[in-house]
TrEMBL record:
Cofactor(s) this protein cannot do without: pyridoxal 5'-phosphate
GO CC entries: cytoplasm
Reactions that this protein is recorded to catalyse: [(1->4)-alpha-D-glucosyl](n) + phosphate = [(1->4)-alpha-D-glucosyl](n-1) + alpha-D-glucose 1-phosphate
Origin: domain of life: Bacteria
GO biological process, one term: glycogen catabolic process
Keywords assigned: Carbohydrate metabolism, Glycogen metabolism, Glycosyltransferase, Pyridoxal phosphate, Transferase
Glycosyltransferase in keyword set: yes
Xref: SUPFAM superfamilies: UDP-Glycosyltransferase/glycogen phosphorylase
Single Gene Ontology MF annotation: glycogen phosphorylase activity
Organism expressing this protein natively: Syntrophobacter fumaroxidans (strain DSM 10017 / MPOB)
Function: Allosteric enzyme that catalyzes the rate-limiting step in glycogen catabolism, the phosphorolytic cleavage of glycogen to produce glucose-1-phosphate, and plays a central role in maintaining cellular and organismal glucose homeostasis. Phosphorylase is an important allosteric enzyme in carbohydrate metabolism. Enzymes from different sources differ in their regulatory mechanisms and in their natural substrates. However, all known phosphorylases share catalytic and structural properties.
This protein's name: Alpha-1,4 glucan phosphorylase
Length: 838
């Protein structure tokens, strides 16, 4: 290639003026895009035109780096990570890419000079909400870290036309609105209409003998769908590595059935098209709960098949034989959602590329890694055998064959242990038969990991115990992390500026360096500046709360925040019990000297999860009463912040004083919100669950508000017989709180509204709220006491931030690279490509 001879530079900047990084270059490019891309003169340009021109200006710089990154993929033959995930909860791109290009301040200045409002542009961007919560957001943080660490990687997923629903609150209830994120176009994606693969569904298989006399299976599908690639560039922080996220959109193979059309059956003709396009239409809005819908399995198989075919094509394109596929790719299964990949890779290698079974199995077993994200039994995916057989008949054959060989091995190790064999089997044979996707992922992977120390230990002793006993060497822990670029630099510019002023900016890439802040915890001036930043962030959130809910909150009160998906195990209703307890204290003693608190909730409930929706209604009902009771006199405010998403999260975490991480011990696999809060200077009130355990280890027990049972205690009490009613009867404050809810006090006198919630607490209490209630309330009292001493609180907050280094997703990704993927960085050098792009 002639261009390679042209100028190269090691720096982030380039001589290519088309994508130059000076203010003049950026301005020129912006104006050109306004003119040539949007077709507008500055005078007639709308906010959307400005946003689009800014996005394309930034994107040009990404694409330049992308081209250089891809050049190295091909030239260097480097090992690539393929991250397979049904969800990527990216959040808005513009600000983040400006941070990673290191041009944020320049662009702000340039915009202000010409009277354009950068914040309005940033605010205008629709976020791609292609995920439900933690798992999808983790995937997005990992893409950022992979690029920042200069690891060649491709994220593979689904380009849902409608992402996670928008949440509105009407009369206190959640109402779901379709998320039309593509309405104004998406400047960040590049459609690749020529990168397409066919994906087959249904039909039947038949055996035949190939030319070499080998028995093979031929699959005749009854439906074929085409996947089209849409690529989004993912730039690392202050590096030239620009990886890609490749999302698949489903289309009909024949967009028109001419035979039907000619006989006048117009609707019949377009039916096939509509049916095929359905596959990538909408994200299933459930987290931690499976819904055995055929369309969901179609989505999973669709994106997995496209992605594997794509990786195989890339591998063959560099001239390597498929026997070495696992040396060129490391593929991570983000939960079991993509685990049908194990069977699909076998099918592609054996049926389509005519590899023998043993070689194919060797490749498969060495290419995959599997991350588990949950211990909740209702989240463990299994598919009814009948459904699976109808949709993927060939894959079921392959799974049976994998299972036969696997169970033969198991029988040698554990002869006569039929119970164990039944548990390990890929097929659940009790009652209706199911394919167990976690078992398939375990058998087909080289490495299996949990997402926090406690979670990994519990995996080994509970849901994956039999696999751990069989292959202990496959298991490891990879505690989650989050990217400080989005969650500190972009979300909290005030704090970033303050930290930079004392210890420089090296921590943005090496988060451990925040340790250097420890010595400032005792510095009065620093603490005052710290408090000023927090107050500014709280004022900004207060303004947003007023705009979104009409509720006015006092930025001088303590902001006590719980934002995450609504789920009984996360126990938002335990938080409500505390609020009602505080309210009862005020009613009993109107003159009480109580620390003013603003308790803020946010999060979406799965549309079909009745209890979660009732919890939202409860929060809003309690808020309604408390916020309007004159006796409270602003000492207590309750807010449900609607439509919690990445964009609002960026405003919420930086404004928090107290972070609520109060799940029942043993239920939250890790949590990542806990990390974002603490990095932004909130103190945590939490149980010993998920990554809370490690956060407490890092920040120190003195700087963490611990309460509640341990996972072991929870298990023991459950096994001995737990009786929530006896706790209710013996604790007057708890009883008063529950009775007030049960009486209809918060539901305009209707005692039935919250009865299902009250009854579930009194007679079942699956998540042991009552067992932890007193410990929680006592701990909250300690929190209030501590907050009264602002200097002490600020010291603790500074120490929290200083000690969060471990929870950077860079650390997590380094561990994955070293211990699971065995990949190393590749420094991408900029090249100006001569006359090609000038
Ligand atoms: C979540 C876990 O609940 C959370 O604890 C963890 O931090 C996160 O994954 C990332 O590992 N699980 C999900 O979000 N699950 C789904 C299906 O959305």
């Amino acid at each position: 290639m002639a261009q390679r001879k042209s100028k190269k530079t090691n720096s982030n900047k380039t001589d290519c003026s088309r994508t130059g990084m000076t203010l003049i270059d950026l301005n020129r490019c912006f104006n050109e895009h306004l003119f040539y891309t949007q077709g507008r003169l500055p005078l007639s340009a709308t906010l959307n035109d400005h946003y689009m021109a800014a996005a394309y200006t930034v994107r040009d710089r990404l694409l330049h780096r992308w081209v250089c990154t891809v050049r190295d993929f091909i030239r260097e033959g480097v090992k690539v990570v393929g991250y397979l995930s049904a969800e990527f909860l990216l959040g808005p791109h513009l600000g983040n890419n400006m941070i990673n290009l290191d041009i944020f301040d320049e662009v702000r200045e340039a915009s202000e000079n010409v009277g354009r409002n950068l914040d309005a542009m940033l605010d205008h961007e629709e976020e791609p909400g292609l995920g439900n919560g933690g798992l999808g957001r983790l995937a997005a943080c990992y893409l950022d870290s992979l690029a920042t660490l200069e690891i060649p990687a491709i994220g593979y997923g689904i380009r849902y036309e409608f992402g996670i629903f928008d949440q509105e609150i009407r009369d206190g209830w959640q109402v779901e609105k379709t998320d039309k994120w593509l309405r104004l176009g998406n400047p960040w994606e590049i459609p690749r209409p020529e990168v397409t693969y066919e994906v087959k569904f249904g039909g039947h298989t038949a055996g035949y003998c190939d030319d070499g006399g080998c028995y093979r299976s031929r699959w005749t599908p009854d439906r074929v769908v085409r996947g089209i690639a849409y690529d989004t560039p993912i730039l690392g922080y202050k590096v030239n590595t620009c990886n890609m996220l490749r999302l698949w959109k489903a289309e009909a193979v024949e967009s028109f059935d001419f035979a039907s059309f000619n006989v006048g059956n117009y609707y019949g003709a377009v039916h096939e098209k509509v049916y095929s396009e359905n596959i990538s239409k909408v994200l299933y809005p459930n987290d931690e709960q499976i819904q055995g819908k055929q369309l969901r399995l179609e989505q999973q198989y669709f994106f997995v098949s496209c992605s594997l075919q794509d990786m195989i094509r890339l591998h063959l394109a560099i001239g390597k034989s498929l026997e070495y596929f696992h040396e060129e790719f490391a593929i991570q299964l983000n939960d079991t959602h993509p685990s049908v990949a194990v069977a699909e890779l076998m099918r592609l290698l054996v049926d389509e590329h005519h590899m023998d079974w043993d070689t194919a199995w060797h490749v498969t077993r060495n290419v995959f890694g599997y991350t588990n994200h949950t211990l909740l039994p209702e989240a463990l995916e299994r598919w009814p055998l009948r459904l699976f057989a109808n949709l993927l008949p060939r894959h079921l054959e392959i799974i049976f064959e994998i299972n036969r060989r696997f169970l033969d091995e198991v029988r040698v190790i554990y002869p006569d242990d039929e119970a164990r064999i039944a548990r390990l089997s890929l097929i659940d044979e009790q009652g209706e038969r199911y394919v167990r996707m976690a078992n398939l992922a375990c058998v087909g992977s080289r490495a299996i990991n949990g997402v926090a120390k406690l979670h990994t230990e519990l995996l080994k002793t509970t849901v994956l115990k039999d696999f751990y006993e069989l292959w202990p060497e496959k298991f490891s822990n990879k505690t989650n992390g989050v990217t400080p670029r989005r969650w500190m630099v972009l979300s909290n510019p005030g704090l970033t500026r303050l930290i930079r002023s004392r210890i420089g900016g090296g921590w943005i890439k090496k988060l451990d360096r925040l340790k250097r802040l420890e010595s400032y915890a005792g510095d009065d001036a620093f603490r005052r500046e710290w408090q000023a930043v927090k107050t500014g962030n709280k004022q900004a959130l207060a303004a947003l709360i007023l705009e979104r809910t009409g509720i006015s909150v006092n930025p001088d009160s303590m902001f006590d925040i719980q934002v995450k998906r609504i789920h009984e195990y996360k126990r938002q209703h335990l938080n409500v019990l505390h609020v009602v307890t505080l309210y009862n204290r005020l009613r009993r003693n109107p003159g009480l000297d109580m620390l003013p608190r603003t308790v803020i909730f946010g999060g979406k409930a799965a549309p079909s999860y009745y209890m979660a929706k009732l919890i939202i209604k409860l929060i809003n009902s309690v808020a309604d009463v408390v916020n309007h009771d004159p006796a409270v006199r602003n000492r207590l405010k309750v807010v449900f912040f609607p439509d919690f998403n990445v964009k609002s999260a960026q405003k919420i975490y930086p404004a928090a004083d107290l972070s609520e991480q109060i799940s029942t011990a043993g239920k939250e696999a890790s949590g990542t919100g806990n990390m974002k809060f603490s990095m932004n200077g909130a103190l945590t009130i939490g149980t010993l669950d998920g990554a809370n355990v490690e956060i407490r280890e890092e920040v120190g027990a003195d700087n963490f508000f611990l309460f509640g049972l341990t996972a072991e205690e929870v298990a023991r009490i459950k096994s001995e017989g737990y009786d929530p009613r006896s706790i209710y009867l013996s604790n007057p404050d708890l009883r008063e709180a529950i009775d007030l809810i049960g009486s209809g006090f918060f539901s305009r006198g209707d005692p039935d509204l919250f009865k299902p919630l009250v009854d579930s607490l009194l007679y079942q209490d699956e998540y042991m709220l009552l067992a932890d209630y007193q410990s929680y309330v006592d701990c909250q009292d300690r929190v209030s006491e501590a907050y009264r001493d602002r200097d002490r609180w600020t010291r603790m907050a500074i120490l929290n931030v200083a000690r969060m280094g471990k929870f950077s997703s860079d650390r997590a990704i380094r561990e994955y690279c070293r211990e699971i993927w065995r990949v190393s960085p590749n420094t991408v050098e900029m090249e100006d490509f001569g006359d090609l792009v000038r």
